[in-house]
Specification:
This is 3-methyl-2-oxobutanoate hydroxymethyltransferase. Its cofactor is Mg(2+). Its EC number is 2.1.2.11. Belongs to the PanB family. α3 packs parallel to α4 (82-95) and α5 packs parallel to α7 (146-162). The protein has helices at residues 16-24, 36-39, 51-63, 82-95, 109-117, 133-136, 146-162, 174-183, 204-207, 228-240; strands spanning 8-12, 29-32, 69-73, 99-103, 122-127, 166-170, 188-191, 199-202. The chain starts with 7 loop residues before the first strand and ends in a 12-residue tail after the last helix. The chain has one domain: TIM Barrel. By secondary structure, it is α/β, with parallel strands linked by helices. β4, α5 and β5 (122-127) form a beta-alpha-beta unit. Strands 1-2-3-4-5-6-7-8 form an eight-stranded parallel barrel, surrounded by six helices. The structure holds 3-methyl-2-oxobutanoic acid (KIV). 3-methyl-2-oxobutanoic acid binds at residues 12, 31, 33-35, 73, 168, 170, 191, 201, 203. Residues 12, 31, 33-35, 73, 168, 170, 191, 201, 203 line the site of 3-methyl-2-oxobutanoic acid.
Length: 252
Amino acid sequence: MKANGEKFAVITAYDFTFSKLIETAAIEVVLVGDSLGNVVQGRDSTLPVTIDDMAYHTEAVKRGNNRALLMTDMPFMSYATEVQALDNAAILMQAGAQMVKLEGGAWLADTVYLLSQRGIPVCGHVGLTPQSVHKLGGYKVQGKEDQAAELMIADALALEDAGAELIVVECVPSALGKQLAEALTIPVIGIGAGPDTDAQVLVLHDMLGISQRLPRFSKNFLEEQTCIQDAITAYGAAVRDGTFPAPEHCFK
Ligand code: KIV
């Protein structure tokens, strides 16, 4: 789709019922995000989420999905070493994931290479990486300074070179989202990264307006629709025709 200049939509899911709705709405990629720590478990970060939690929710989502690419987050500290990464990625793949997602930059290149060489497709995640919230000093826009932006592009290229097949970029200025999409051959999926990435991802509960706080970069798609199914379909259409994200969802 990137090669053809077509945008695609990604959405999180954590259970069978929503997975079925997402499948019916023809969303291209479903992410079992560790954001389940926030929106399902009611925690104040993703750090307490375990590999067993991720496997449990992946199995449920898998049962409802026969169409979208199913990607699952590797949770905090489940890929701190290469051995841990391999063992834990295997658990998620056996639970039904078709790709795993890891948060971090060039330091993960060897891990990404190891996983992809062993038949495990990998998605990177740069920018605001919620598992590092305490290191980052909060949930803040990343890559605002030139040096930080250059480092992020170098990180993303290192992940691509190591074998990553997708990259999520979270909460960065729109100009950097565009630079990343242009610099990489693989698709760049943005969340709060402006309109020029190859795809967009939103947390399900945010785009239905049922999370505790709607992030600035998200949009409540249920507001203009009469049912959840139509809201998810409208999200997919808005990503594909480029009407989401609008300027009010972007950072400078
Ligand atoms: O956990 C999650 O839902 C994510 C998305 C915000 C990209 O990683």
